[in-house]
Amino acid sequence: MLTDKRILLIIGGGIAAFKSLDLIRRLRERGAWVTPVLTRAGEEFVTPLSVSSLAGEKVYRDLFDLTDEAEMGHIQLSRSADLIVVAPATADLMAKMANGMANDLASTLLLATDTPVLIAPAMNVRMWEHPATRRNVSRLRGDGISVVGPNEGDMACGEFGPGRMSEPLEIVAAIETALAEGPLTGRRVLVTSGPTHEPIDPVRYIANRSSGAQGTAIARALAVMGADVVFVTGPADAERPEGVHVVEVQTAAEMLQAVQAVLPVDAAVFAAAVADWRVASASDSKIKKDKGQIPSMEFAENPDILATVSQMTEGRPRLVVGFAAETDDVIANATAKRLRKGCDWIVANDVSPETGIMGGSENAVTLITEDGAESWPRMGKDEVAHQLAVRIAAALG
Ligand code: CTP
After folding, report:
1. Is 343 a catalytic residue?
2. What is the best residue among 274, 309, 331 to mutate for testing ligand 1's pocket, by most ligand atoms within 8 Å of CB?
3. Which CATH code fits 188-396?
4. Could you tell me the Gene Ontology terms of the biological process aspect for this record (predicted)?
């Protein structure tokens, strides 16, 4: 149920705007208050009268409406809701959001707000697949905006493919998830994930086999439980999690910098497979193959991000969780690692090739705390993530 939840619904200009009328009805049925905002282009598809009749509230349309400003200014309007929903989110509106433009009421509200935002994109399939839209979607996700859909199917323009706005009930479900209160609501949690790439020269780098799957699953599980998650990731294959703030980095040094910029947090989970060494002096230009000459490389040690944060004397997160990827004597090595690095917990796993864990979908972990080692049965990485999130919530109380 959405009883007494306040939704600010921005209706963009697309044929899918007609579905937003049904969306209003569904939200009202569930007890939500809907304050509608109609863009100029949106008015070409649905009338202000039908929108306000269904919402039972006035519809906001103009940025410089003197009556509106006297009743409720646009800044206040943008912050008075529990959630802002943009449906349909057109390619144009998404481009404005991704670039921080504010030249009409809808885009100004979206820039002025500190309320969570959910968008339901709707556009022609070519527009959806255009590199500019792909770029905008990933930026918006990185800004912590949740995205529902689009679906695949026949389109009003006669083409077929992804671009149809999600159905009203699918959007309602996404709204319910976005508004769900969880045991981690109000907690800020940092998660590092993925490999790092350490450059040799502009085209070559040293990396490792981490896919980022476990870190991504942990970020997602924490967000589902209500945490405000900042996800600092190296160049991982795994798709970026929804509804979290994503910070992309390449090297260990950049990851440390990004982590320090995110602090303070309540808890930090270091799931990244950070490269232990970097090339001491990476070349600025491509190293040429010089008749039989094999280049030699000197390495320098990377900063240990987990140890740095664990050993902070001021502003240390209340709970610091490290990972230990081991191939031999897993529990003994990981127990020693916990003490050496100074973290509270270590999630240890055996990454010997025969386990198929590195890059696979399952994990068999042992949780090491000051109370000892607790081995969990082999399970999906999503389930490991959920169990870990439950433990983190209990530890933060
Ligand atoms: N880690 C880190 N920064 C590094 C290296 C590791 O933050 N430069 C973190 C990882 O994110 C992980 C933990 O430290 O949470 C353990 O990583 P692991 O590679 O298993 O340990 P190492 O310190 O590299 O020890 P070793 O390779 O000797 O096992």
Report:
1. no
2. 274
3. 3.40.50.10300
4. coenzyme A biosynthetic process; pantothenate catabolic process
CB-based contact 155:367 (threshold 8 Å): no
Angle between helices 91-99 and 131-142 (to 10 degrees): 50
Kindly name the residue from 157, 173, 280, 339 that is annotated as catalytic.
157
Digitized pLDDT (tens) for each residue of the chain, 397 residues in all: 899 999 999 999 999 999 999 999 999 999 999 999 999 999 999 999 999 999 999 999 876 676 666 666 778 888 889 999 999 999 999 999 999 999 999 999 999 998 999 999 999 999 999 999 999 998 898 888 989 999 988 877 788 888 999 999 999 989 988 888 889 998 999 999 999 999 999 999 999 989 999 999 999 999 989 899 999 999 999 988 877 889 999 999 999 999 999 999 999 999 999 999 999 999 999 998 877 788 889 999 999 999 999 999 999 999 999 999 888 899 999 999 999 999 999 999 888 888 877 777 888 899 999 999 999 999 999 999 999 999 999 999 8
Question: Measured between alpha carbons, how far is 161 from 194 in angstroms, rounded to an integer?
Answer: 31
So where are the chain's domains? 6-178, 188-396
Q: Looking at the domain 6-178, which fold is it? A: Rossmann fold (3.40.50)
Atom 4 of ligand 1, nearest CA residue: 304
Cα 348 to middle of ligand 1, angstroms: 11
The label of the residue with tokens 């026949």 reads 154
Helices 105-112 and 91-99, packing angle to 10 deg:
40
Global confidence as pTM:
0.77
